[in-house]
Specification:
Rossmann fold, single chain, alpha/beta, six-stranded mixed beta sheet, five-stranded parallel beta sheet
Length: 495
């Protein structure tokens, strides 16, 4: 059966999976969401005997129904190859009573690799399927990790160009160096003098700009997105929750059918939405524990039913979560409103207008799957040190936000259900924050000295992603105001 996708803001706009991947964003600015969430049609027992690639096929074939088996398997096998530094692509470590799903063993050492390593193949396959002759311009905003993972995925991919905007002073030094040293004639990286929400809003506005689209078309280009607003980013993220559950069953840590809770450090809401989709496919997930840092807009929303972005933007040591407009929440709103596009459009209009919306009582009742809480900067540092002292296991700042919120959840509920924590980035990506949490004396050392100290303390090999940027040349040094984003895109494309 072919799965159809509709805009969250207009039920009249329907597309196939490949069309949704190509477009990225709907014509009205809405996101593409499946009209129904398909049920898993393979048993957990069967999944537990499969490789990551095989599980990926069983999950993704249900969403990408206009791809042939050969096309989809080709995309999967090209993406999940030797670029991962562990034989098990997403290994699980047990520490302090929880299971940490390590999603950072790809080429850019963050969970974005899990989806962004496959997106270029899904996109170029979609272009061929739909007889697209234009060159595809990937336009994306990043809070730190998506940018590098997208750049690495699309570098020198024929028929594509990629432009990444990031907040100049809102990412870690290693995140920035990973991006600005990126090779590839088709890559372009631009820092903006603003925050991530400014970058994301600018990108969304360009997608919605009809005049710009005409100019692009005339020059032989069309935009697509690598952010999690693209369904081609979201679907591959569902895979690792299904895979993790099947692994825990295979290892005897869970009984088949036993409920598992999931904790996700959350900014743009894509990663936890993928877990929600996995639950709705029939995976035995209990609570979806949404962990925020001090930019706790999602915690407030889950607690009150009111989303309010009118607040101070806090720069934290978990910068990939420094977000006040969580784009993927729109897909959840659409689902809990009973796929009511008019209602979703009304809420999104309120958000872009006065920055606030409140959901209905019925929608609030549909949020019972979720629990929200947040961790302060001090709490995040404490949990890194605590886990290191107790288990000699070192986690990054984003994973630490999740670990602290998990502790709060257990204290609030006394729920002892076995729990999976999405470990979304390598501690090597945030060495200064991580090492300072363990001992403030480390702060006097340079960034790459800290890498070596982390290696000594953890016994974990320094990833290639870090080694290759130690002495790499800066190739991208453009910085602009948010008002100049369109002109910088035109300049790069010579239009």
């Amino acid at each position: 059966m072919n799965l159809i996708y509709k805009s969250t803001r207009n039920n009249e706009e329907t597309v196939t999976a490949s069309e949704a991947i190509l477009k990225g964003l709907a014509n009205d600015g809405g996101l593409f969401a499946p009209t129904t969430i398909p049920a898993l049609d393979v048993s957990v027992e069967a999944l537990s005997k499969m490789s990551y690639q095989e599980v990926a096929y069983e999950v993704m074939k249900l969403y990408l129904t206009d791809f042939t088996e050969e096309e989809l398997k080709n995309c999967i096998n090209k993406a999940y190859d030797k670029k991962f530094d562990t034989t098990e692509i997403a290994p699980i470590k047990k520490a302090d009573g929880a299971y940490y799903l390590e999603l950072f063993h790809g080429s850019t050492i963050a969970f974005k690799d899990m989806a962004l390593s496959i997106l270029p193949y899904l996109l170029t396959t979609s272009a061929k399927k739909n007889n697209v002759k234009n060159e595809i311009v990937i336009l994306t905003a990043t809070s730190g990790d998506t940018g590098k993972a997208a750049l690495a995925g699309f570098a020198d991919v024929e028929g594509t160009k990629i432009i990444v905007f990031y907040p100049k002073n809102g990412v870690s030094p290693i995140q920035e160096k990973q991006m600005v040293t990126q090779k590839g004639a088709n890559t372009h990286v631009i820092g903006i003098t603003g925050n991530f929400d400014d970058a994301q809003t600018g990108v969304k506005n360009m997608f919605a700009d009809k005049e710009l689209a005409k100019e692009m078309e005339a020059a032989g280009y069309q935009f697509s997105s690598a952010n999690s607003i693209n369904i081609g980013r979201l679907v591959p993220q569902i895979v690792y929750y299904v895979y993790a559950y099947s692994r825990l069953v295979a290892k005897g840590e869970l009984n088949n059918g036993e409920t598992m809770n999931v904790v996700v450090p959350t900014g743009n809401f894509g990663n936890i939405l993928a877990a929600y989709y996995a639950k709705n496919m029939g995976l035995p997930i209990g609570k979806l524990i949404c962990a925020s840092n001090e930019n706790k807009v999602l915690y407030d929303f889950l607690t009150t039913g009111t989303y309010d972005r009118n607040r101070e933007f806090v720069l934290t040591n978990s910068p990939s979560m420094d977000i006040l407009i969580s784009s993927n929440l729109e897909r959840l709103l659409y689902k809990i409103a009973g796929n009511d596009a008019a209602k979703t459009a009304e809420l999104m209009k309120a958000l872009s207008g006065n920055g606030v919306y409140t959901i209905t009582e019925d929608m609030k009742k549909a949020l019972t799957d979720f629990y929200g809480n947040f961790a302060t900067e001090a709490e995040t540092a404490e949990v890194i040190k605590e886990l290191y002292d107790k288990e000699k296991y070192i986690i990054d700042t984003h994973t630490a936000v999740a670990a602290k919120v998990y502790q709060k959840y257990v204290k609030d509920t006394a729920d002892t259900t076995k729990t999976l924590i999405a470990s979304t980035a390598s501690p090597y990506k945030f060495t200064r924050s991580v090492m300072n949490a363990i001992d403030s004396a480390y702060d006097s050392k340079g960034d790459f000295e800290l890498v070596d100290e982390l290696n000594r303390l953890s016994g974990v090999k320094v990833p290639n992603a870090i080694e290759e940027i130690r002495n790499a040349d800066i190739l991208h040094n453009t910085v602009c105001d948010k008002e100049e984003m369109v002109s910088k895109v035109k300049e790069f494309l010579n239009i």
